[in-house]
């Protein structure tokens, strides 16, 4: 090994240890559609329609730029080896390694999830494709270290220009769901479902909205095209608070809220849940349904059956032992 690459390798070992990542959902380049279809770690891929997981979710390999927050920006000249010129400086070093591929998640009219394979439970109201964080093939294994104390959930989201959304609908795209079906926090897009249907789309339909457990909006960001929207949510599982960080593309994350109370969330294991990301599209009211059915968004309502999608990268859960990572190998103290 040449001294220079040895130096790079050592630097990365040190950097990796300095920032404990508890679960890494940044898809490595050796993660393929075969792994996805097998529901292999780090993703449980069963929340989808009747086709195999790789019908709805694609790993984009080297054809697409993941968020430049944690990987180099391929659209810029690369300082990267092997063989090429490598100038090692602390500020460049975090950008020396491409660590992940983009994950493209989509829905179509076949995206009817049938929990437990029992057709009586078919979720005809929703169209959904989600990946869930898991360890050793079970999401419960993540709870003891990722959902106690204070942890940070990182994710970056981008529009997929080839698969536009319909902003008349509500989309739930990232959330932690305890068994009562509530969300510790959630990211919402589009027009929230109402019965009766109001004027669509609502004024802020194109904003990414960070919701707390009581569905109060903590932060919004215009979901503009062609940029990665980097979000992180710091969850204090004991004090029941949430704090939000945001940035675009390679800009360092910035705290955009303080630690806000989220006291309606349950305590202890009742408040812990599955960490989902993907596309969950709610229906619109079907005027022909009975009023009970009109409110049953899981099973009833109308859907256009269109193919729609989102791009994801930069997904991981980190310990806050050493603060909160903000990019460029830097971190900030806990948000209070
Ligand atoms: C990818 O490579 C890493 C490092 O060698 C290995 O630990 C992991 O199991 C591989 N993943 C797959 C899906 O092959
Ligand atoms: C994509 O890029 C990664 C990182 O540079 C590399 O390890 C991988 O071999 C590349 N894959 C292909 C198919 O070229
Ligand atoms: C979409 O799927 C639903 C439920 O399976 C079906 O009733 C409907 O006809 C389909 N719509 C289109 C446009 O294919
Ligand atoms: C930010 C905030 O206060 N969020 C909610 C957390 O839970 C409490 C109790 O239900 C709500 O009142 C808050 O709106």
Automatic annotation (TrEMBL):
Source organism of this protein record: Crepidotus variabilis
**What positions does the domain Glycoside hydrolase 131 catalytic N-terminal occupy?**
21-323
Q: Which residues form the signal peptide?
A: 1-18
The alphabetical list of record keywords is: Signal
Taxonomy, superkingdom: Eukaryota
Q: Which InterPro entries match?
A: GH131_N
Q: What is this protein called?
A: Glycoside hydrolase 131 catalytic N-terminal domain-containing protein
UniProt xrefs under Pfam families: GH131_N
């Amino acid at each position: 090994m040449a001294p220079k690459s040895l130096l790079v390798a050592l630097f990365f070992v040190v950097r990796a240890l300095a920032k404990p990542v508890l679960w890494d959902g940044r898809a490595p380049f050796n993660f393929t559609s075969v792994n996805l279809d097998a529901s292999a770690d780090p993703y449980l891929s069963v929340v989808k329609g009747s086709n195999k997981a790789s019908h709805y979710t694609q790993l984009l390999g080297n054809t697409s730029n993941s968020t430049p927050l944690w990987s180099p920006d391929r659209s810029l000249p690369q300082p990267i080896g092997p063989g090429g010129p490598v100038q090692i400086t602390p500020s460049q070093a975090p950008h020396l390694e491409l660590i992940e591929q983009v994950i493209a998640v989509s829905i179509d009219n076949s995206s009817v999830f049938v929990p437990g394979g029992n057709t009586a439970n078919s979720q005809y109201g929703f169209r959904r494709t989600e990946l869930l964080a898991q360890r050793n093939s079970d999401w419960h294994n993540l709870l003891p270290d990722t959902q106690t104390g204070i942890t940070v959930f990182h994710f970056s989201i981008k529009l997929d220009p080839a698969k536009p959304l319909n902003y008349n609908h509500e989309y739930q795209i990232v959330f932690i769901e305890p068994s009562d079906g509530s969300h510790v926090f959630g990211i919402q897009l589009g027009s929230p479902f109402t019965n009766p249907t109001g004027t669509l789309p609502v004024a802020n339909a194109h904003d990414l909205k960070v919701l707390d457990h009581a569905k109060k909006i903590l932060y919004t960001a215009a979901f503009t095209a062609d940029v990665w929207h980097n979000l992180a949510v710091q969850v204090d599982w004991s004090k029941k608070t949430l704090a939000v960080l945001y940035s675009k593309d390679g800009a360092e994350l910035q705290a955009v809220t303080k630690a806000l109370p989220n006291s309606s969330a349950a305590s202890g294991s009742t408040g812990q849940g599955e960490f989902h990301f993907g596309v969950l599209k709610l229906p619109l009211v079907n005027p022909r349904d009975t009023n009970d059915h009109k409110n049953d968004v899981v099973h009833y309502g109308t859907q256009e059956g269109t193919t729609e999608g989102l791009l994801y990268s930069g997904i991981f859960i980190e310990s806050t032992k050493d603060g909160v990572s903000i990019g460029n190998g830097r971190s900030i103290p806990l948000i209070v």
